[in-house]
Amino acid sequence: MFELFRMLGSRKLFVLLIVLVLFIALMGVTLGDRIGLTWPEKFVKDTVGYTQKLVNKPASALSGFFEDISELGGVYEENERLRIKVAELDRALIDYDNLKTVNESLKKDLKFTEKQKLNSSKHYRFAQVISVNEDVNNPTVNIDVGAKDGVAVGMAVTSIEGMVGIISTTTDYTSTIQLITSLSLTSPDSYAISATATGKPGTFGIVESYDVKEKRLVMTGIKNDDPKKVIDVNDVIVTSGSGGVFPAGIVLGKVRAIESSEFGLTKTAKILPTASFVEWKDLFVVVPGPEPAEGDDTP
Question: Which CATH superfamily hosts domain 117-288?
């Protein structure tokens, strides 16, 4: 060993050698398989992790803040739509209460009989179309319900869109409908419909003919001497229930034109039927009075 020192010839060279040996040993420990970390490594790792936590937490909060703002905009729009819908329902409820009050008042003023009260209510009997007679002079439709189902001559028949006609004949299990497009002042088998405009209590007229050329129902006898009883274009016309023939509220159509009568004392309305009169499959017979209790099949 002393020979080696003499060969090296310098203390500085000896120290350099020792440092080199220690460096190689340290490298071996660092690169080898280790189970734990040294305290400097632990200190550095903890410091970096804590710094990342401090940085990431505000960044995450900021990102969530902007997401919440975006979602808040959607919630506001949805609340606005719901607010408008509630307002519409409130208005509809007010209109309904007003109409109900007016209806009860009119019944009281007119001294409705029990029969009239019965006719002012209605229910519907579902029916399917069996066949269609497209005779121009006498168009009719046959349906699969009859007397056994509580259907009787003179009852109105409607589609989802509006009134299509009246029951003209029945058997036990089928019925024939005379269409409102066959209404005529000259036909002895025709009929007249008392009608009014929705939302205008007191308006009145008679629908008793159909203009084949213009494809319009003709409503006559409309008084023009009372501003409160004026019928205008675009008014929806429904059965009035007067006379006890048809229950009130069956939709006939919408007014498309108003004309003065020959002597100017009354007005005539041309009404576009709401029913389409094509390719019917399902119809409804309007039965006067409340719907029978469940299990009661008595007509």
Answer: Rod shape-determining protein MreC, domain 2 (2.40.10.350)
